[in-house]
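Sample A.
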Amino acid sequence: MTHSIMVGCDLHDKTMLLKIAEGREKAETRSIKNTVAGRVEMIRMLRERARMVGGGEVMFAYEASGQGFGLYDELTEAGFTCYVLAPTKIARSMQHRRRKTDEQDALQILELLKAHVLAGNPLPKIWIPDPQTRDDRQLVRMRLDVGEKLTVVKAQVQGLLKGNKQRRPGDSGKGWNATFRRWLAELASPAGTLGPSSRSALASLLRQLSWLEEEIDLLDRQVLHLALTDRYRDVFYELLGLKGVGRLTAMVFLTELGDLSRFSNRRQIGAYLGLAPSSNESGDRDDCKGHITRQGPSRVRKVLCQATWSRVRTDEAEKVAYQRIVARNPKHKRIAVVASMRRLAIRMWHRAVDCAAAHEKTSARARQKGGPPPSAFAVTSAPGGLRPSG
């Protein structure tokens, strides 16, 4: 009789603490170095244990972290069943949080895995993106990160001006236009009115500003190139048809959500993006809703928020829907924005899925006629100057 070998792993940069159990037997603890050699030895050891129990299946589980999916790939290649668990969906008691150890974490993961295998309990696992989607995400995320750095540098410039009691000239208009930038360059020059150290600091910030803007232009071109590949082109143009949705917004949405066909309805989309209200209902407490959960990819919520403000300004129907909620209570502007964000996310999902379905029908007809299929399209990823809403 074969037994399932279940492994709960607490994964760190340098070590992996394993809790290993066969069926309902007591767990055994093993510590493995998180190196190439250590992982190879761990796989060899688990294979040997599986052979000794008659070829039992090896099931491995660990929490998602900054380690990425490298361990998942290696274990899957080795023929093991691997689950990556969502830390936010693992219930932890207050006692566990106060006495948190690697052993406790690994044991809790093992217990969740055993409950899934032996009792059929649901496992809080995450969807694993394919390697191409992971790679595409890196470029789009870098574009977002550089944009955030640019915002930080601009805030530092404004702080330096306030600290030195400098006010922008009245004829410089608004924003970071050419007139305002020339004035900043004059302040940073040797003839400027700032002190020598402040001039040096401002000059450094202006150099950083220039470099970041050049880097953003370069990344924008690269993201646009990605958006126009066969993998994304059809759905990319489809999403751009929505008011307020720009190149970056479309690419962030598609790359972060990945395979959109894994969502079956709008509620799942809202819940995944953290745009569903939290609830605290028990006993006589009915319909007690709180703030949104804010679970899921925060990058998507950020670009959706920026795109929503653009839609409120440019789309009359969206403006009416926004104002209707605000009219009930002027303090509920945030609620109105979140409602608009959720509507936009659902519209984007519907458009992307419909586009994929239409493409599949066209491909099927082309295959029946024996001709070449149209450009390949996958809903599993997508692109995003690329400004979030422009």
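Sample B.
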Amino acid sequence: MHVLLVAVGDYPHLEGGSSTERFNGLRGVGQLSSPPVSARVMVEWLRNDFVPYQGKLASVEVLCSGTESFVDDDGIKVVVERATLPQLRAAVARWHARGNVSEDDTLVFMFCGHGVASGAISSLLLEEFGDNSLDPFSTGAVAADDFITGMRSCKALNQLFLLDACRYIPIDYQDEFGESTGVPLVKGVAHSNLGRSRQVCIWASKLGNSAYGRPGYPTIFTDALLASMRGASARQDEATDAWVVQGTALAEGINEFVKRSEAANKQFATPGMMTEGFPLHVLAGPPIIPVNVVCKPANRYGTVDLRCGPGDYTASGLLGPWHLELAHGSYSMTAHPMGKEEVIATRLCIASPPGTLVLMQVGE
């Protein structure tokens, strides 16, 4: 497996940027602090927790425009290149070459930064976007769909694209730049992989919507992605009996955690271009499942205690759903008047991927 992570937080030509030459075609779009942090936690997860379904993690390359630092396995700070178009061209060429050795190889590409859409076409914005105000997409943007399509010519058949970017459609930019999309990075050449390549693409947001970050913390998508890797996106493998994260199940698992976040009802991870899924990551133990316990009617929140067994799981006086993460299996949920032992509702909970909803009828 070969991984290429691209994180863009520093946009010199957008609002709040360091350059005196400002691009005014995207009003309200400026600097980001979440993408570099997201790249760092992804690297840490890959090094410490990731177990490939087949083969090994052979390489991780990072491009980052921001202040976040990275360390190697010996704790030594690693210098990463900036996420500019020339650097990305060279990095993609190296990544493509690594994956062009064997059909059994797996390629993973993750982008975290600004994105825009024109119609159904999405673009990923790099550090220098806006340095050419007359044609900003030719010098600072990637045509996402063209890039993914071009990668089908690579010998590695398993390819995962994680695109943590907005896909909203700014009217002012669309009026001026029309169908501009960016650079494809990989030419769409004739190849024999059509019908054979297994590509999975997951966007952090729906077309026309935004993806959200949190100042100084990983993005909502990155947090949800890593949480889903604990089990929400896992399925039991028929050949080995192990629990394995499947590429085609990623969006479902990610959304189980997005809807728990501050971006609930505003952000929704969606599959993009997809041909066929493939197993990605093997869990070390049973999957950990997000379980949501909901009281009915809602006006009873704050008046009941909730308990889950086996295990010492309790919640008292919650003003909203009880969010748990439980190992795959069966549990008993009970509701009690606050501070009392009387049982007023009981439900069986089967914790299974991608997530489990438990409705507790606790009164009228």
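B remarks: The chain has two domains: 2-282, 288-361. The longest strand covers residues 288-296.
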